[in-house]
Amino acid sequence: MIGDVGTAKTVFFGAINRSSAPQGFASLGAAPADQSLKLRFGLASNNAPGLEAALLDVSTPSSANYGNHLTKDEATVQNWLSSNNVTAVSSSGAGDWLTATIPVSKANALLAANYETFVHLDSGKSYARTLSVTLPPEVAGHIDEIHPTTAFSKPLSAGPVVSVPVPSRRSRRAKSNNAQFVTPTTLQSLYGIPATPANQSSNGIAVAGMLGQFAEKADLTSFLSQFRTDLSSSTTFSLQTLDGGENTQSAKAAGIEALDIQYTIGLATKVPVAFVSVGPDNQDGDLGGFLDIVNFLAGEDNIPPVFTTSYNSLEGDFSKGLNTKLCNSYMGLGARGTSVLFSSGDGGVSGNQPQQCDTFQPSFPSTCPYLTAVGSTHGSGPEVASNFSSGGFSDVFPIPSYQADAVAGYLKALGSTNQGLFNPSGRGFPDVAAQACLRRTFLPFRLMVFQGEEVQIISGGQQLTAKGTSCSSPIFGSAIALINDELIANGKPTLGFLNPFLYSNAAALNDITNGSNPGCGTNGFPAETGWDPITGLGTPNFAALRKAAGL
User: Fold this and answer.
1) Rounded to 5 degrees, what are φ and ψ at 363?
2) If both were cysteines, with which of 30, 282, 368, 527 could 243 make a disulfide (CB 3.0 to 4.6 Å apart)?
């Protein structure tokens, strides 16, 4: 929101000009004057529709320009043109962002701000925020957002993933056919994913790592030795770091979220995989890691054809402007040919909020229309929607053209169910789904068991079962990476931004018609024939997707 105040413009980067911090945060007083702040300036995006048109043009199978993905320079120019002709500004690789690291004292003077230290009461994490910002009129019209300023959000979540030791062989034999352990082999069988090694060096998958979640090479070796015996156990991944990131190698440092590495390498046979570790220097604890990693990848000359992330927050945790600016960064990646995939989240329609929530809580960034959100299923005869799989409708982004018919069909079938609890004009998510994991949440005096399979991983040298939609995105991304490999080998462009391709080839996915994602005191959304806001269009049918891609 931008409003006139005298001869200057006051910019409120939260939804309002805050008189106080939102519920759940408390001020500890003025932030130290010498505390370092990494300020990100989001330039005006007046031509974002132009970049969107270019993205859809190269991503829609019926377009004459399908597959003609933009170069780095072209994408940068698109964003430069959208920045109100601020030609002296050096943009990030992803587009229209500037970054400056300055002390709090200078930030206060520059922005006419008063930064305080606010603590998030539930987590104990603290951040520097201000309740108001003032910019001079000569620059206010050129800046959409500055972060961090007045936007308060909870710490990022990698999903409530907990692991338990693998049960005995006797208990394994007692499991029914609809509740089996998931391994690369079971996924290959279920989805028809081949074990044939990829061979294109320009192919690749980038896997996001945040919040001190590290991928252990020793665990990967053990995982491959047990679950991909046909693949060399020495198969490994490359490492890229930003914001002081690292990949500490020890049993104590093992992170459950590194299951993304084990399942991309375990499924996308011989596709080069990079673990991209975001360190603590992004400072924000919320938007910073998301934004920095997309800018980092977009700044590379050879960006990855597939980028998968299993971290998420809630759409309402960020201001509408910040949601939009970050989403536009994914649009820039897609325009250059990257398939961006995100897990949809683990909170059903409540978004991990208390069950007494008044309205459904969409997750983010999975509501961004320029990426592919992946929900979760379990079982194999047939698959069923996992009841923790987040899905619904955005409160920020409208329904994109590529899914308009699919969403309209679902809403017609839904009728008045859940009326008033969600935005029927919003972008529906997820777009697709894949097998997830069993998630157990321990609460006082009871154990809640959420439907899903027990996905086998190795963490800290132990064989464990992982829980959460974190499994689904790397599984689906692996199938796409193998198709990309064949496309490259045949001299064709990679799939890039997937959604126009997927929605125009819905029959190439396994439609899921059973299950729901309860929350907020309701049964949530039911899975239905066709697209639904719990499993999207369905799970991968590799042979059908391959054929749809022209192979």
Assistant:
1) -85, 165
2) 282
Place of tokens 């066709």: 530
For 105-111, which contacts have Cβ atoms below 8 Å and span 24 or more sequence positions?
105/33, 105/34, 107/37, 107/39, 111/135, 111/146, 111/149
428 among the known binding-site residues? no
Which backbone phi and psi does 522 adopt, to 5 degrees? -125, 175
What separation in angstroms does the CA of 81 have from each of 37, 50, 59, 84, 142?
28, 9, 21, 7, 12
Q: Is pLDDT at 337 greater than 50 in this prediction?
A: yes
Query: Is the peptide bond between 365 and the residue preceding it cis, with omega within 30 degrees of 0?
Result: yes
Q: Of 516, 350, 541, 514, give the one whose Cα is nearest residue 432.
A: 541
Known catalytic residues are 257, 260, 470
261 is in an annotated binding site: no
Hey, what are 416's tokens?
């008045």
Q: Determine whether the annotation assigns residue 511 to a binding site.
A: yes
First to last CA, the chain: 49
What pLDDT, in 10s, does the model give residues 156-187?
Answer: 655 434 344 444 333 333 333 334 578 899 99
> Which residue in 411, 400, 386, 406 sits closest to 539, CA to CA?
386
Q: Are 339 and 473 in contact (CB under 8 A)?
A: no
Contacts of 423 (CB under 8 A, 6+ apart): 393, 394, 395
Return all residues near 491 (Cβ < 8 A) that are at least 6 apart.
Answer: none
Q: Of all helices (H) and strands (E), which one includes residue 206?
A: strand 205-209
CB 427 within 8 A of CB 499: no
pLDDT in tens, 70-79: 554 334 433 4
DSSP-based three-state secondary structure for 462? strand
160 closest CA partner among 352, 387, 349, 348: 352
Q: Which helix (H) or strand (E) holds 223?
A: helix 217-227
- What Å distances lie between residue 185 and 263, 266, 343, CA to CA? 11, 9, 22
Burial pattern 276-288, b for ≥16 Cβ within 10 A else e, equals: bbbbeebbbbbbb
Element (H, E) at 342: strand 339-343
CA torsion, ordered 466, 472, 478, 483, to nearest 10 deg? 160
Please state whether the peptide bond connecting residue 382 to the residue before it is cis, i.e. omega within 30 degrees of 0.
Answer: yes
What domains, with CATH codes, occur in the chain?
2-46+83-147 (no CATH), 180-518+525-548 (3.40.50.200)
| pLDDT-above-70 percentage for the chain | 75
The answer to whether 244 is annotated as binding is no
Is the Cβ–Cβ distance between 470 and 260 less than 8 Å? yes
Distance (Å, rounded) from C-alpha 395 to C-alpha 274? 33
What is d(CA 321, CA 367) in angstroms, rounded to the nearest whole number? 14
Task: Report the amino acid identity of residue 151.
Answer: A
Cis preceding linkage at 103, omega within 30: no
